[in-house]
Design brief:
Largest sheet: 7 strands, parallel
Radius of gyration: 25 Å
Strand content: 15-25%
CATH class of the largest domain: Alpha Beta
Number of domains: 3
Shape: globular
Distance between the termini: 50 Å
Strand order of the largest sheet: 3-4-2-5-6-1-7
């Protein structure tokens, strides 16, 4: 029997102008969820789609949405996309913006943690596609800034996460404000329980499509469960980050992320944190620093990390094991995306070993709980000095004493000689020892310590052009704020 032909976007009925926009972005073949749902969406049907994160859901609903709506008047959008988190709101809006450009569809996202001013101005000018978190949208409706009576298409994205976060009552109130003859597209990792109740209440004769979990993704993702004393976890994590590429580390609490960031800093590991107490500006800067490779690790809580879609994450570490299998799968799904491989490491302290074994049985993950072995991870190294192993009784790395403390302080707090940036060529960098040299073209090589890097090491190779500032360190003049230069 021959292979089943994969339909093209044109085969699915995608209008020519949108098909051309997709091809311009290098998107030529529909993903499974797109192949199943786009034609029904374009036909005006209500759709319930079950697919995992990273499956292409945004275009699965975005294509029918952009193709089917009219232009909107001030404060009266014709399409509404409801999402659980502000990060997802921004990402969905970015995707729909380029998709809607051929038809001059205006897209704007509203979410909490950002000022009302720009959002009110955008609504007054007119927004065709409004991407919104439920709470902020309710606030804007209360201010009289937006009316949902002209909405033609509603999308409920990541409905299962909406349910987990307690947003469904607000979602129902918002849906009640839209016309009864609207088209409703719902996408979720699960379609049972509270999500099924929402489908039955707010969709009209929906067509249901399910994409099975990608079996190849399970094979691309390796899982490790490490028996780790509570006081040893930071040192072990520092070793993982010295060996891995971009890594997301999950902690149970907001305080835990900040505390862990400080402790990792003592090992020379640069991190960013993401949790509910951070402002929108701080969250955006943290995500940008991680996505661009300027820091190798993002420390996050579960709720704050929901909706994050960053390609190229090499490793996920459960510093604190998740509460249940759904959180384990959602956390772990940040890696091994878009056909890439990924590594997942769970730290198992003695008091949580029974709970983790129950979690493994639920997940059908038979991997043994072993002693930490960073060498078994087979990860591409980054330019972060390898963390020293410490005894189980030592909670944090020892601080330098006497003259060593003075020199370390001088190095860590040296003032740049000049804000002017200089270019050179990286001669080499010793990952294990955490230093290297840059050829300035003057005959004298310039020392660089790993703490002076402003770029993730996995992007830095011998012979690349770098830009840097000069500063005084323990070895004399050193390179600081070292960045890659595109040439």
């Amino acid at each position: 029997m021959g292979a089943i032909a994969v339909p093209s976007f044109a085969d699915l009925g995608v209008p020519h102008d949108l098909d051309r926009a997709l091809h311009a972005r290098g998107i030529e073949t529909p993903t499974p969820i797109q192949a199943l749902t786009v034609a029904d969406g374009l036909a005006g049907r209500d759709v319930s789609g079950k697919a995992e994160t990273g499956s292409g859901k945004t275009l699965a609903f975005g294509i029918p949405l952009v193709a089917g709506i009219d232009r909107a008047g001030p404060g009266r959008p014709t399409a509404l996309v409801l999402v659980p988190t502000r990060e997802l709101a921004r990402q969905v809006a970015d995707e729909l913006t380029w998709l809607g450009r051929p038809r001059k569809r205006r897209v704007f996202a509203v979410y909490g943690g950002a000022g009302f001013g720009p959002q009110l101005q955008a609504l007054r000018r007119g927004t065709d596609v409004l991407v919104a978190c439920p709470g902020r949208l309710q606030d804007l409706i209360g201010r009289g800034a937006v009316d949902l009576d002209a909405v033609q298409t509603v999308v409920i994205d990541e409905a299962d996460r909406m349910a987990d976060m307690g947003f469904l009552p607000e979602v129902r109130k918002l849906l009640d404000r839209t016309p009864p003859n609207r088209q409703t597209l719902l996408f979720s990792a699960t379609l049972d329980g509270a999500v099924d109740t929402l489908v039955r209440a707010y969709q009209s004769d929906p067509v249901r499509h399910e994409v099975a979990d990608d079996p190849s993704a399970r094979g691309r993702m390796t899982h490790h469960f490490w028996r780790t004393e509570r006081d040893d976890r930071v040192a072990v994590l520092a070793e993982v980050l010295a060996a891995a590429g971009p890594t997301i580390v999950f902690c149970r609490t907001k305080y835990g992320t900040e505390s862990l960031a400080k402790k990792l800093g003592r090992f020379g590991v640069r991190t960013e944190t993401l949790h509910g107490n951070r402002s929108q500006g701080q969250r955006e800067r943290a995500l940008e620093a991680f996505a661009s490779g300027r820091v190798p690790a993002l420390l996050a809580t579960d709720v704050a990390a929901r909706g994050i879609h960053v390609d190229g994450v090499a490793c996920v570490v459960h510093f604190d094991p998740p509460a249940d299998e759904k959180d384990y799968l959602h956390r772990s799904g940040r890696t091994a995306r878009a056909g890439a491989s990924g590594t997942v490491v769970t730290f198992v302290t003695p008091d949580l070993e029974k709970a983790v074994r129950r979690l493994q049985r639920t997940l059908d993950r038979p991997e043994p709980i072993t002693q930490p072995d960073v060498g078994a991870l087979d990860l591409e190294p980054v330019l972060v000095a390898a963390a020293p192993r410490v005894e189980a009784t030592v909670a944090e790395p020892a601080q330098p004493r006497g003259r060593e403390r003075t020199r370390a302080t001088e190095r860590d707090h040296a003032t740049p000689r000049s804000a002017a940036r200089t270019r050179g060529t990286l001669k080499f960098f010793d990952t294990k020892r955490g230093f290297g040299f840059i050829d300035q073209g003057t005959g004298t090589d310039l020392f660089v310590h790993h703490s002076g890097l402003d770029v993730a090491g996995h992007r830095l190779r011998e012979g690349v052009t770098v830009e840097f500032e000069l500063g005084d360190g323990r070895r004399g003049v050193e390179a600081r704020n070292v960045r890659l230069v595109a040439v």
